[in-house]
Each structure stands twice: as C-alpha cells, then as structure tokens.
Amino acid sequence: MDFNDMKKIWDEQNQQSLYAINEEALHNNVIKKKNRAAFIADRSEVFTIGSLLISSAVIIAAMIYTTQLRIAPGVLAVFMLIMAGILYGKRRKRLAWQNTFDRTIMGDLEQAIANAEYQVQISKWSKYLLFVVAVVSIVDVYSYTDWWKSLLVLGFFVVVYYLAKWEYRTFYLSQRNNLIRMKEKLSSLDR
Amino acid sequence: MDNKKQSEIFNQWLQQHKGILFKIIRVYASTEEDQEDLFQEVSVQLWRSIPSFKAEAKVSTWIYRITLNHALKWNKKEKRRSDGIEEAQEQLHVLKQQDEINPKLDWLYDQISKLDKVDRSLCLLLFDGYQYQEIADMIGISENYVGVKLNRIKKYLTEQAKMNFENGL
Q1: Of A7, A10, A22, A189, nearest to B26 (Cα)?
Q2: Given phi > 0 = left and psi -120 to 50 = alpha, else beta, which region is B91?
Q3: Contacts of B44 in chain A (CB under 8 A)
C-alpha cells in the first residue's frame, strides 16, 4: 500500500461518520443532570424559606421577650415572612411544571435547563432580598447602638454579598450555561 | 454579535464540518473519555472563535486552525483527573466510535496517532488536501520545513504499511 492508496482510504471516510451518538449513555447522563438541577433548586428553596422563617421568628420572639416594639425589626420580620410566602408560591409553581416535559433526551434536557434557569432567577432574587435585609439591619443598628457597630454589620453583609455572587457565578450560572451549550451541541449533532 | 446569531453559526459549522473535529479527536485522544473531553473542549473553542472569524478565510480552514491549535495544547484527561474523581464521573459519553469502519482506515489512524503532536497535524492536513503553504500558515512553521517533515511522514507511513500488510495484517 503506497501513499496514494492511503489517501484513497482517507477520502472514503468522508462518506461515513467516524462517530455516532451513544443515545442510552447520553440519556442517562442527561437524567443525572436533570435530577441534579432539580435537587439544587429544591434544597435552595427549602434553605431560603427556612432561613426567612427562622429569622423572622427570632426577631418577633425577641420583641415579645423584651416587650419592645421597634419599627425596623418589625418591618423586617414581616417582610421576610412575605418573601418566604412568595418563594413558597414559586416553589409550588415549579413543582407543578416538573411533569410537563416529555421523557426524551431533549425533554429531560429542557427540564434540566428550566430548573437551572429557575435557580439562577432565585439566586438573583436572593441578592435583592439580602440588600433589603442589609439596609434595614444597618439602619436599625445605627439608630440604637454605636456607629462602628453598624460598620461591622455593613462589613458582614458585604462579605455575604460577594459570597452569594461567587456562588451564583460558580454554580448556578455555569450549570445553566453548560446545559444550554450541551443542548446546542446535541441539536446540531442530531441533524 | 449576539448569542443567538453565534449559536446559529456554530450549529451550521458543526453540522457541515463535524468530520474535521472527529478526525482531530481520533488522532489526539485515545480513550473514549479523552475523545469526549477533547470534543467538548474544541467545540467550546470553536464557539468562542466565531466573532473573530473573517469571511475571507474558508470555514473548513478556520475550523482546522482553531481545533488543531487547541488539540496541540490539549493534555490527556488522566493528568488532570488527579484533582478528583468527580470530573471523570461527569463525562457525557456522547460519542461512540462506529463499528463498521474500514480496518485499513483504522490502521491509518493508529499510525498517525503514533506520530508526535505536530506531525499528526501535518498529516491530517496533508490527507485533507491542503497545500504546503496553507499548512505552514496554519501550524506556524516554514513551508520548507513542512515539506521536509511531510516527506519523512510519507516515508514512515509507507514503510509501516509495507511491514504490516506484507505480514498479512
């Protein structure tokens, strides 16, 4: 076999594809990603609702215990209860659309993307929530104690904000973007 | 360029030129995991390269340029897997090699895979009909050096073929 024969063999491959999509393994992998996205969304909701309820309960309990009715903590407690209620409503809606996707590779992938997108929105929403909690807390601390204590509180919220931002980019945004890229790749290979 | 437009171009390129990517991953990655990993990485590089693509170049040449440059820098998955086993578990296994590939073509790929990294690129481009000057531009070496290297590669492959096929393989 000389070099020209090798060239002919090489050119023949252009009529056939070297690789095919391993559908079963791919589907299992997509299901794993779908379950992971749903698990992250579920835990995130439960943790956020739990934190809001516990925080507002602690504030209300402290006001009852000290028999001091202060406006800022009272408003904050009510605000957090409302936010917990809104998030619970969002969770119910999310659970309701879980079974609306078909059980194909693309359907499961769409569901994974929908859950990942939901998580991205919740994470953004949590940052606004954090901002409101931070402002009310700092104003309250500033009004009732030394000014430097409000600076400490401000520092705490700044750290929490950057941690939340890091979590948003590292986990939620990258998870969603990876899933979208995977869908694009599969769509193009499928043709 | 917006994301939608970029995705459309990417899908079109992948649809028409996925053969180039398949050839490259076949000669630069040996295990299924590595092939999958390299395929994903070159796909991402290709997607990122779309805004810098100038229409005066042929799309296939551009795809070769981007994917070969990345394949030349790419390291086997095993080297990076020491960071943890999770990475390995995240493999997609989207690709499986077709069973009914011509055994002679399979042999040819094996021989190309045994060459050093740059020679593999030269060989792929030669088989796909690129001129020495184009190959030199893409790989970043002189045209003369491309000629010298390709002559050696042709000689090596011919010797290997003679040795293997005369022995009835």
Answers
A1: A10
A2: beta
A3: 181
Residue of A5, A6, A14 to mutate when probing chain B, most B C-beta within 10 A: A6
Buried b / exposed e over B122-143, threshold 16 CB at 10 Å, is bbbbbbbebebebbbebbeeee
Over the stretch A123-181, which tens digit does the pLDDT of each residue have? Answer: 999 988 999 999 988 888 888 888 888 899 999 999 999 999 999 998 899 889 888 88
Compare A181 and B109 and report the one with higher pLDDT: B109
- Dihedral, CA atoms, B86, B75, B38, A10, nearest 10 degrees? -150
A8 close to B169: Cβ distance less than 8 angstroms: no
ipTM of this predicted structure: 0.79
CB B150 within 8 A of CB B122: yes
Range B1-97 classified under CATH 1.20.900.10? no
The bridge status of strand A19-21 relative to strand B95-97 is antiparallel
Chain A residues within 8 angstroms (CB to CB) of chain B: 1-3, 5-7, 9-10, 12-14, 16-22, 25-26, 29, 181-182, 184-189, 191
Question: CB-CB: which of B93, B102, B127 is closest to A22?
Answer: B93
Q: What is the DSSP letter of B82?
A: T
* pTM given for the model: 0.58
Domain edges within chain B: 1-97, 100-169
CB-CB neighbors (< 8 A) of A9 in chain B: 102, 104-105, 108
Can you give the pLDDT at residue A189? 60
Minimum mean pLDDT among A163-167, B83-87, B137-141: which range? Answer: B83-87
The owner of tokens 């990517």 is B21
CATH 3.40.190.170 for domain B100-169: no
Q: Which amino acid is at A184?
A: E
Q: How far apart are CA A73 and CA A59, in angstroms?
A: 7
